[in-house]
Amino acid sequence: MKKLTLMLLSLAVITGCTSEAPQPAPKAQPPEALTGRGAFQKLYIAARGWAADIRPYQLQSQIVGDIKGKDGKAAVWRGAFASASMRAAKPYTWSGIDSPDAPSRGVSPGSQDPYTPGNDFDMQFLKIDSKAFEVAQKHGGDKVVEKSTDTPILYLLDWNRGENNLVWHVIYGNSRNDAKLVVDVDATSGEFIRKEK
């Protein structure tokens, strides 16, 4: 019995001596900012784990902390991807900052939502971009800018299912609702489609 007690006491002493001291909390990492392309690559890789046939349909940055989007970089990016096989969409967020108003660092998925894959478009249809402004200027945009030089010009790209083409909507104003002029330009051919006042 003495031997057993001595052995248990020895084990207790050895175990107590080999326990590790508590380690200090890890240092806060400095914020990391990425360009849209860098963030897109991280988001795309994660989204491919969800569905092999994903198609991106949105990528946007978010201002968090002191990183205000200079040099095309942001500390938080959100991308949305659609899958025809799953008939669903899923957002993914990448964060490179520790902040109470930001998601945790790294890539994190959002909730899966219903999505109609027919609203996607093939990137091969997107042949022109800056030419849309030139075409819009020739169809009344120059007169709008001449009257009010501080008029903002917005660009919206979407698929016109009825006419089966990809369209640039060149919007002269703060939104489509208060626009002074909207000129639609075919994003593949660069041809004028119509204008609305």
Overall mean confidence score, pLDDT: 77
Classify the helix fraction into a percent range: 25-40%
Order of helices and strands: HEHEEEEEEHEEEE
Largest sheet: 5 strands, antiparallel
Rounded Rg: 27 Å
Estimate what percentage of residues fall within beta strands: 25-35%
Poorly predicted spans: none
Count the beta strands. Answer: 11
The first-to-last residue Cα distance is 100 Å
Derived from helix and strand composition plus strand pairing, the structural class reads alpha+beta
Number of DSSP helical runs? 3
How would you portray this structure in words?
- The protein is built from three helices and eleven strands, in the order αβαββββββαββββ.
- It has helices at residues 2-18, 36-50, 130-147; strands spanning 34-35, 54-62, 73-74, 76-83, 88-95, 106-109, 113-114, 153-160, 165-172, 181-186, 192-196.
- Strands 2, 4, 5, 6 and 7 form a five-stranded antiparallel beta sheet that branches. Strands 8-9-10-11 form a four-stranded antiparallel beta sheet, with helices on one face. Strands 1-3 form a two-stranded antiparallel sheet.
- β9 and β10 (181-186) form a beta hairpin.
- It starts with a helix and ends with a strand.
